[in-house]
Amino acid sequence: MVKKWQKLASEKLADYRIFTVWRDKRLSPRTGREHDFFVLDSNDWINVIPVTAEGKVVLIHQFRHGTGQVTIEIPGGIVDLEDGDPSVAARRELMEETGYVADEVIHIGTVEPNPAFLNNKCHTYLALNARRVQAPQFDGAEDIAVEEADLAEIRKMTEDGRIAHALVIAAFYHFNRYQARQLNGSKLID
Amino acid sequence: MVKKWQKLASEKLADYRIFTVWRDKRLSPRTGREHDFFVLDSNDWINVIPVTAEGKVVLIHQFRHGTGQVTIEIPGGIVDLEDGDPSVAARRELMEETGYVADEVIHIGTVEPNPAFLNNKCHTYLALNARRVQAPQFDGAEDIAVEEADLAEIRKMTEDGRIAHALVIAAFYHFNRYQARQLNGSKLID
Fold first, then answer.
1. Could you give the ipTM of this predicted complex?
2. Residues B108, B79 share a domain
3. pTM attached to this predicted model
4. Which of A16, A19, A152, B55 has its CA 20 to 30 A from that of A45?
5. Are residues A58 and A14 part of one domain?
6. Chain B: residue nearest A4 by CA?
7. Is residue A175 part of a domain?
8. CB spacing of B61 vs A14 below 8 angstroms
9. Domain residue limits at A51
């Protein structure tokens, strides 16, 4: 049985806008020794799989500054204070990044982006009957192209590495589980 | 067509052991304006799905300092300079964290943990005929319990949130795709 480590101290080291960095001092329950760990504090994130009436998924292409490459992803972003519920953030990011709205937004899973050093969660939504109602609204640092793809093509993209964002892959894992539950007629777990 | 942003400058801000933080200045190809972005530089990571001869998957329980909770995961870690190939890191972490070895280690997928602000990749391996040969070897900050679970139980754990690490969920996505390809008798893409 693995035990929790008691937190002895926590010091804020830096503010990098999308997260703050903290040094936490914790006590090992196994050895009784103290260790320092760096932890990033961030708001929760959301991402959303928008599916059109024709069964296509709305994907976005954007330049990503971590890898320095243009990626293919689903819409997503940070839950703002004003959003309140993460499903509101899902609808907002869908509109901002693609100009699409949806009839229904269903929570299909929640993951921890990296429990080793991030303290937040990423909530995944399925947006049904997604349809374009206006042009996307970019903030100064965004530049997004929108594409609709069917699920067989998306499977190929995940296998050949064109879709590689771990949170997008995790979203499709939960989408597949959601579909399997629907087929089995079983109740949703979450 | 989304264009790449030209990098104008890059400044190292901090070294947090598991990653360094950089401020990159880049030029928007859409607006011609400069923007600053925070980027974490990290070695690549690996994780590994160890499957025993009986078809069980080897899971680990450990305290995670980002979320402050005990998680259920598959073995994984950072590719060290001495590892060279990431498959070597996969075998090393499997041994260190569980005390298991495997006959064959197969690359089944690679993801980008977060292309928005991390520059690294995470390589996922399937380890076949995994078996315990010794006790795990913990470093000072580790305290790990090992569990074997069958795939139906793991599916449940991903659905009820007991398994929530995004990179672990992504690993099982690629494991499912690998199994589907094996069933179809098609050639591996990667």
1. 0.95
2. yes
3. 0.95
4. A152
5. no
6. B63
7. yes
8. no
9. 45-184
